């Protein structure tokens, strides 16, 4: 999220996506692993509820809601 939004992307940059997944921790983990196995290497998926507070704040203040 941060590098692409700030237009500092390089050939090594990835796209960070935070997903709000309303389920128990184990199901969220399974979901993340399944998604990561089916998308490009330069896309990273994180479950919002499992992020540290300081990253949650950055996602809320600087992120773009996709859906």
Offer a quick outline of the entry.
With 67 residues, the chain is an alpha+beta fold. It is 39% helix and 15% strand.
How would you portray this structure in words?
The structure is a single chain. This protein has 67 residues and is an alpha+beta fold. It has one domain (2-62). It has three helices and two strands, in the order αβαβα. The protein has a two-stranded parallel ribbon. α2 links the parallel β1 and β2. The protein is globular. It starts with a helix and ends in a 5-residue tail after the last helix.
Low-confidence stretches: none
Tally of helical segments: 3
Q: Using DSSP, what is the number of strands?
A: 2
Query: What is the radius of gyration?
Result: 12 Å
Strand order in space, largest sheet: 1-2
Helix content: 25-40%
Quickly count the domains.
Answer: 1
Strand content: 5-15%
Task: Please supply descriptive tags for the structure shown above.
single chain, 67 residues, alpha+beta, two-stranded parallel sheet, 3 helices, 2 strands
Write the layout of secondary structure elements.
Layout: H1 2-5, E1 15-19, H2 25-36, E2 43-47, H3 53-62
Parallel strand pairs: 1-2
């Amino acid at each position: 999220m941060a590098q692409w939004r700030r237009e500092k992307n390089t050939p090594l940059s990835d796209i960070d996506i935070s997903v709000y997944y309303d389920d128990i921790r184990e199901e969220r983990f399974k979901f993340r692993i399944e998604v990561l196995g089916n998308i490009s290497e330069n896309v990273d998926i994180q479950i919002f509820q499992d992020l540290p507070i300081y990253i949650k704040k950055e996602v809320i203040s600087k992120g773009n809601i996709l859906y």
